[in-house]
Specification:
The chain has 325 residues and is of the alpha/beta class. The chain has one domain: 3-Layer(aba) Sandwich (Rossmann fold). The protein is built from ten helices and 13 strands.
Length: 325
Amino acid sequence: MSLRNKSVVVTGGAGFIGSHLVEYLYNSDVEHVFIVDNLFLGKIRNVVSLLDDHRVTLKVQDASNYEYMKMFIEKESIDVVFNLAVVPLPMSLVYPKVICEDNVKITLTLLELQRQGFFKTFIHCSSSESYGSAVSPKMDENHPMLPTTPYAASKAASDMFVQTYLNTFGGDMVIVRPYNNYGPRQNERSYAGVIPLTIKRIFNGEKPVIYGDGLQTRDYIYVEDTAKSFIDVYNNRNTRGRSINIATGEETSILDMVRVISKELGYNGGIVFSPPRNGDLRRHCADISLAKKLIGFFPSTPFDVGIKKTVSWYKSLFNSKEVVF
């Protein structure tokens, strides 16, 4: 399998993971990369360096719009769709109905178009949140789906639709299930993740905030390792019809994560401990043996190295005098 000379869509391609995937695709000799993003969280700044090339096109559009996506995919003779469009977890704590409807609708729109033959290969980005908290030390792809937030439920439901479309209609598709991504370009504004929020607070002279006791764990993976894995998943035919964890297989507590960031920023102050958030996961650590077997996956960025790169990127962003979009 090769992406060479293929026309490819990345929904959510101006977002965090999506923009890194677009860069990898751009360097993979694809014929054309189309970014479909409504810019709710995605930012033009994430892909602006590529948009001068005729091989990259940004479509500011909602990927759940069936009629538009049908017209566009047919017109451009799309071969592959990487679905990374999503409404994020923090928003589900405020607008649960909206994010559940949107996340599922995006997936169903693309599944219907694939079923009708408008494109061949569907690579769907899931989330480890669909598993809920770990019921075993290492969470493999057979871990039960026990979502604890509306966002997690929307991702679990989307996965089930992918699997049932595969079972019922067949098709060339894969579910990629990344764990906790971090790195440059993660949203630092409304509905931001814990790592950019922590960096931003310390940078602004505020104390970092931890919800709960900080001993809850996550399996943090650097975004470039995840983005590259999508290419490897496509390129390996033996991934088809599978769900595949992408992670490091290592646990890091929220408290240790804050300490690593604090050390990198030279911060020696205190930490604010707030009450636990509803639906927060207690433990996450992936079994990545299937990814190793199918695509030779190996996370190449140690956590301290990834945090150093991440902090450096955000410091440059926060120090910038320019208006960034």
